[in-house]
Amino acid sequence: MPQLLRTEHENAVVTYQSPLLRGVGVPHGFTTRLGGVSPEPFASLNLASLMNDPDADANTNVAENFRRVRRALGCRRHVRVQVNQVHGREVWLPPAEPVRPVDAPRADAIATDKPGLLLMVRVADCVPVLLSDRTGRVVSAIHAGWRGVVTGVAPSAVETLVRSFGVGPGDLFAAVGPCIGGNRYEVGPEVAQAFEDAGLGRAVHRSGWNKPHIDLPGAVGLELERSGIPSHQIDRTDRCTFDHEEDFFSHRRDHGRTGRQAALIAVRQDIT
Fold it and tell me: Which residues are within 8 A (CB) of 149 and not within 5 positions of it... i.e. 6 or more apart?
């Protein structure tokens, strides 16, 4: 199984990167919690401010953290594009001009062929996925929590690339980023049933535990393959956001009092 590469950038930011996407030449990365300026419990590369929380990380910290990530990825002048994530399957095709975060739509995936846009989704246990066609001209960033998985946000993003940009699924490369591992993702019977009803029963594990456990990255990988992306064109990782506390924020481990990682991608910079 191809593995993401842990990458230490010259400004101390640490990301995980896909060998496949590197080969295509698209700027991208799955951030860690390393290399930023935020204090505990958001130390240190937190990329989200929690709204309506008086003890949230300061916006100035988050802005500086983003500046460092842009520099690490070589995207200092890119326009950051994000959505208001709602655990659904909607895919947004953003315009070329900037959209204020408050005006961004409710969606969980973004796709573009426009140079100069840096697509971003935030996570802290959910599955981040990055897609690119083999030319680096079309890219997508996906946020997949369990609800997004069972409603098919990853297949929806693939369908959007096919429909809107004429990209064949067999010409796509995918990277499934660090998220909570199956041994840590205990769920109730209704969630397990939802995966089985969605045809993802292979990701449900019942033996050895009192409650079912879900292999979220395995389920997403299965959906990508069913969407037509060959298995050898999907990079994966064994990094678990819950277990590897030194590298990642985890909503479940930290009982909601934590920061956020991000998955970011842009079209190739030599495309105009």
Answer: 127, 195, 198, 200, 216, 219, 220, 223
